[in-house]
Design a protein that fits this description.
The chain has 130 residues and is mainly alpha-helical. It is built from 6 helices and no strands. Helix 1 packs antiparallel against helix 3. The longest helix has 24 residues.
Amino acid sequence: MFPETGLGKFILFIGVAAIYNSIQCFVPKMRLTHRIFARKPKEATSLAARQMGLWTFTSALIRVYAAYNLSNPAVYQLCMWTYGLACFAFLGEVFIHKTAPLSSPGVWPALIFSSCGLTYMALYYDSYVL
């Protein structure tokens, strides 16, 4: 039921958390987008929240699939891209677009987990990909 390796378990955990985060984007009472993008809350519209939710759900599906298929190079690399893109997106919102403070409830965890996930996967690439 659960992946056998530590990396697989980590990726599955992040994937399941991302599914929960994507659901939050579609349920108005659960939305955190206005808190994440606190510096420019008017830009955190319902449309932007739903788009973020769909993007997050897509990343989650790739991660959950990757957790069970780490020996597949294409899946492994796609999963690495999800972490890289998440890191890039949130760093851009903090430092370029200035829509989100680094202390925001969705920013600092996303930056920590995306950078850890990307680093973990890069370091162990040769151990998993056949």
